[in-house]
């Protein structure tokens, strides 16, 4: 008499990125960049934007731009990217819960700056001199604006 062995295999779908576990892929690339700059308490969202529960201080990091895979969404405290060589703010957070500073860079435009800043906005000492009216046309700033 023949016996048959039947095995049922169940596969579970997971919303997590399987490449993340292998330390490859976009999520791992983003995490490696954030970790290399000492950014902690971050979440990489499904759309690959980044939320940070805390501060981001990227002052004096010799940045000319943010890599194309870095797109901050919400930062609950300060976001500082001053004293670099930035020529663009693309990748900066959409909202900042504290102050935002992009002073002392090579900026000729503030395109890409946050839409909302709950604290102060510092953008003086750039290649172009900005005015308060221009800043307010791009961003709702609750605090002071330093141009």
Radius of gyration: 21 Å
Whole-number tally of structural domains: 1
SSE succession: HHEEEEEEEEEHEE
What is the residue-averaged pLDDT? 90
Unreliable segments of 5+ consecutive residues: 3-15
- What distance lies between the first and last C-alpha atoms, to the nearest angstrom? 89 Å
Strand order of the largest sheet: 1-2-4-6-8-10
Q: By helix and strand content, what is the structural category?
A: alpha/beta
Tally of helical segments: 3
Major sheet: 6 strands, mixed
Q: What's the number of extended β-strand segments? A: 11
Any idea what the shape is? Answer: globular
Helix content: 10-25%
The fraction of residues assigned to DSSP E strands is 15-25%
Report on this model:
This protein is 15% helix and 18% strand. The protein has one domain. The longest helix has 11 residues. The radius of gyration is 21 Å and the shape is globular. It contains 3 helices and 11 strands, in the order H-H-E-E-E-E-E-E-E-E-E-H-E-E. The chain starts with 17 loop residues before the first helix and ends with a strand. The strands form 2 sheets. The chain has a 6-stranded mixed sheet with strand order 1-2-4-6-8-10, with helices on one face. It is α/β, with parallel strands linked by helices and 147 residues long. A hairpin with a 5-residue loop joins strand 1 and strand 2.
């Amino acid at each position: 008499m023949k016996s048959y062995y039947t095995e049922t295999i169940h596969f579970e779908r997971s919303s997590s990125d399987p490449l993340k576990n292998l330390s490859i892929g976009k999520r791992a690339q983003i995490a490696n960049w954030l970790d290399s700059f000492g950014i902690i308490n971050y979440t990489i969202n499904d759309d690959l934007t980044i939320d940070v529960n805390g501060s981001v201080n990227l002052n004096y990091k010799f940045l000319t731009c943010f890599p194309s895979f870095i797109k901050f969404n919400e930062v609950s405290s300060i976001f500082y990217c001053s004293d670099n060589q930035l020529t663009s703010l693309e990748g900066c957070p959409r909202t900042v819960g504290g102050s935002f500073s992009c002073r002392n860079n090579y900026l000729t435009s503030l395109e890409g700056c946050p839409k909302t800043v709950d604290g102060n906005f510092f953008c003086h000492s750039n290649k172009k001199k900005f005015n308060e009216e221009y800043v307010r046309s791009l961003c709702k700033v609750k605090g002071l604006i330093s141009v």
